[in-house]
Inverse folding.
């Protein structure tokens, strides 16, 4: 039988790094900022604005974006200015993408 040499091109090293990144996140409570969850690249891809600040500044009310008394307005604004149906969908996707960025970072 002929032998075949397989070159993993760093695959296992990278896989180990991904595992270590995931382990570092496991059970860890983190205080995240808007910049962590909504980096400019994420905002450009998922909204009609380029930055979180621009997104909030263009919202139709004053005050904090997460103000629960404004949930209907917020959901309408999100639906009209993003690829999401409401704030919860947007926030969930931002969280998922944040975790992916952390796990797959080099």
């Amino acid at each position: 039988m002929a032998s075949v040499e397989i070159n993993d091109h760093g695959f296992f090293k990278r896989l180990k790094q991904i595992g270590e990144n995931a382990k570092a996140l496991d059970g860890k409570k983190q205080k995240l900022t808007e910049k962590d969850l909504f980096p400019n690249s994420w905002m450009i891809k998922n909204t009609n604005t380029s930055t979180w600040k621009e997104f909030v500044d263009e919202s139709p009310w004053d005050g904090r974006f997460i103000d629960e008394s404004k949930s209907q307005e917020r959901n309408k604004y999100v639906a009209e200015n993003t690829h999401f149906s409401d704030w919860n969908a947007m926030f969930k996707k931002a969280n998922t993408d944040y975790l992916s960025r952390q796990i797959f970072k080099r």
In short: The chain has six helices and no strands. The two ends are 39 Å apart (CA to CA). Residues 72 and 86 are 9 Å apart (CA to CA). The mean pLDDT is 86.
